[in-house]
Amino acid sequence: VGNSSVLTCSSKSNMTMVIWKIYPQDGVVCTVGYRADLNQTNKINCSDSVDWKFRPDQDLTLEIQQVGIADEGNYTCEVVATDGYFLETYHLTVLVPPRLILSCDDHGNPVCEAATGKPAAQISWVLESNSTPKEEGHDNGTVTVSSKFTSHGTDVINMTCIVSHPAGNQSKSIVC
């Protein structure tokens, strides 16, 4: 999320038309087209962040600037040329890194939270804990995972929470 994504499409000799069709998981189909004989481009139902990376008569690459969760979905590039019809398909998955929040509850137990990540993060502790993480889904597709450290009868002063996520791992320590 927040980065640019670039999807390539193979150019063919004697190309007459190219259409990128974007099927977002929660939105209206968007099309970005190019007609070679008129050297004309067209966009229908697309946000300003979706466009050709370069001139389509030279490069058929599509760019999504500042990718958001709403951009997740299927992207197809259809090329019509004198020697046939060519199709390339992509599935764009958007990763949202969670915010790591580490605090102490009213009883002095460390509580680790991986807030609003996509997909859900995994939480572990440097020392083993019999804690069961709890997940809360949000309307925008993100998930908050929380875990409370429960000690095994030993006094632990400094605790470290580790959050594992495809967008990057994080760790933080706290004294409760």
Describe the structure.
The chain is built from no helices and 15 strands. The protein is mostly beta strands. It has two domains: 5-92, Sandwich (Immunoglobulin-like), CATH 2.60.40; 99-174, Sandwich (Immunoglobulin-like), CATH 2.60.40.10. A hairpin with a 5-residue loop joins strand 14 (158-164) and strand 15 (170-175). The two termini are 33 Å apart. It comes from Centropus unirufus. One of its GO terms (biological process) is regulation of neuroinflammatory response. It holds the Pfam family V-set.
Give a summary of the structure in a few sentences.
With 176 residues, this protein is mainly beta. The chain has strands at 5-7, 15-24, 30-35, 40-44, 50-52, 62-64, 73-81, 84-92, 99-104, 110-117, 122-125, 134-137, 143-148, 158-164, 170-175. 0% of the residues lie in helices and 51% in strands.
CATH architecture identity of the largest domain? Sandwich
User: What is the distance, rounded to the nearest whole angstrom, between the alpha carbons of the first and last residues?
Assistant: 33 Å
Strand content: over 45%
Extract low-pLDDT stretches.
none
Oligomer: single chain
Q: What does the radius of gyration come to? A: 23 Å
| CATH homologous superfamily placement of the largest domain | Immunoglobulins
What sort of overall outline do the alpha carbons produce when their principal axes are compared?
A: rod-shaped
> Roughly what is the average pLDDT, rounded to an integer?
89
- Under CATH, the topology of the largest domain is which? Immunoglobulin-like
Number of strands: 15
Largest sheet: 5 strands, antiparallel
Q: What is the name of the CATH class of the largest domain?
A: Mainly Beta
Strand order of the largest sheet: 4-3-2-7-8
Can you give the helix content as a percent range?
under 10%
Give the topology string: H per helix, E per strand: EEEEEEEEEEEEEEE
